[in-house]
Amino acid sequence: MRVETILTCFDGSSAGEEQLRSAIHAAHWFDAELSVASVAYLPDTGPEAARVSDPETSRRVAVREAMDRARMVFGRLEAERVRGTAFPFVTTRKAMTGQFDCLSHFADVTVRPGSFGPSEDGSPRFGDACFIDPAVLQGRRRGPDAGSRRH
Fold first, then answer.
1. Is the pLDDT of residue 111 over 70?
2. Residue 146 lies in a domain
3. Is the pLDDT of residue 14 over 80?
4. What's the superkingdom here (predicted)?
5. Is residue 37 part of a domain?
6. Number of DSSP helices (H) and strands (E) in the chain, helices first
């Protein structure tokens, strides 16, 4: 199966920079389109979370930060001659993994944080990012109704 779409996220951190760089290399390698969720975090909510004095202001700041980050990433994709897009993605740190997992069902390959050496789940590595995509390994495209199994 040909890899057509790659998904990653970028939160502006140095680890996020390494992940974005790996995703750009992967997009070149596979000649694929790259989608980048440009992440900004809202304060976590719930009984254990710190109280936010003005949640609406926090939301506006996070949206502006995500939009600015998306513009920066989009410019970088153009400069690196990578087909793709960047979009703002506002979430809490607590909800990030679950929400990003939902997006990953629509990509052929997902570039996630990782480290060098063999992965615990057997996923192949590319640079300092971990590719997790059963569909590519099984030779079928994933969708919202396709079964998911980690390798």
1. yes
2. no
3. yes
4. Bacteria
5. yes
6. 4, 6
Q: Does a structural domain hold residue 9?
A: yes
How many domains does the chain divide into? 1
CATH number of the domain residue 12 falls in? 3.40.50.620
Please, what is the Cα angle at 33 between 32 and 38, to 5 degrees?
A: 135
* Residue 74: per-residue pLDDT: 96
Answer yes or no: is 84 within a domain: yes
Cβ atoms of 91 and 99 closer than 8 Å:
yes
Query: Which pair of structure tokens corresponds to residue 147?
Result: 């079964």
- The mean pLDDT of 89-96, rounded to a whole number, is 90
Name the residue among 111, 102, 101 with its Cα closest to residue 132: 111
Best CA proximity match to 118, nearest among 74, 80, 83, 151: 151
Give residue for tokens 């004095």. 53
Domain that holds residue 111: 5-138
Q: In the prediction, which pLDDT does 97 show?
A: 86
CA pair distance 141, 1, nearest whole angstrom: 8
65: tokens are: 């930060």
